[in-house]
């Protein structure tokens, strides 16, 4: 179902702003000059894009895979590169140390790779070295965590954290169907992170459009242990709940453990991110978990695919525009029992 009109308007405006940022094939520098990332786009068909071209080397660097979603990011990127006989993928060891990741990118630059796909452990900290790569004529594909300068990336691929909150809130509104006294609870991730703030803002906006609000809110830390502790606190302070949105399916393992321990089942729960174990629970329909909102773990894989197109001078064949867009934001769909079979094959294990 569509979101209510006022919320749809906000989303359409946001989408328009993203689509307007289409297609600079130039790797601009702060001085306004261009780099060798300027490539003439000659073809824009499915057949030409799939055809093998000149072999290119792509460097990939991401954070340590200490979370199910991050592990899926890495494995999907490697699997995508394996599809192409004209792509050689160099994978740096995953790290949560920004300085180490900077040195990895500098190695890619020194080795003169053709493109870099980078999910930065800290977008601001990796901005300068990404600009350095762009100035060296190496297109950078920024994944998930944005750099602080537009000159640091040729293309940026993002999930939709605000949209996750909107999707979760809209689903809950639909299920509660006008119950104005409903008690809605929220188990967030790490409150200091912009992504958590965006998810909470989208959730609050969607609830507001159907006359509801968050009655009880706690924050966890994206871990199983943190989810269990936060959920235990929430359940102890809220004797009655109608619906819960938990931001993250990894921490949701602990959330469900706390719910089971408390013997509570008067509410339904919506998850976040889209893990396989959560989707199996939704499919079985034997817990309070009835839906989850996807935060795509395909972003780096998309980055590999787009890096190949950019370096080989190709565009996206389903677009009239002849070049790869400068920014792409992925959708945050709701997975329920009715559509879970569509999403389960690509889900990650938490």
TrEMBL record:
Compartment list: Cell envelope
Highest taxon in the source lineage: Bacteria
Molecular function terms from GO: carbohydrate binding
Domain Periplasmic binding protein: 58-314
InterPro entries, alphabetized: Peripla_BP_I (IPR028082), SBP_2_dom (IPR025997)
Region forming the signal peptide: 1-20
Name assigned to this protein: Monosaccharide ABC transporter substrate-binding protein, CUT2 family
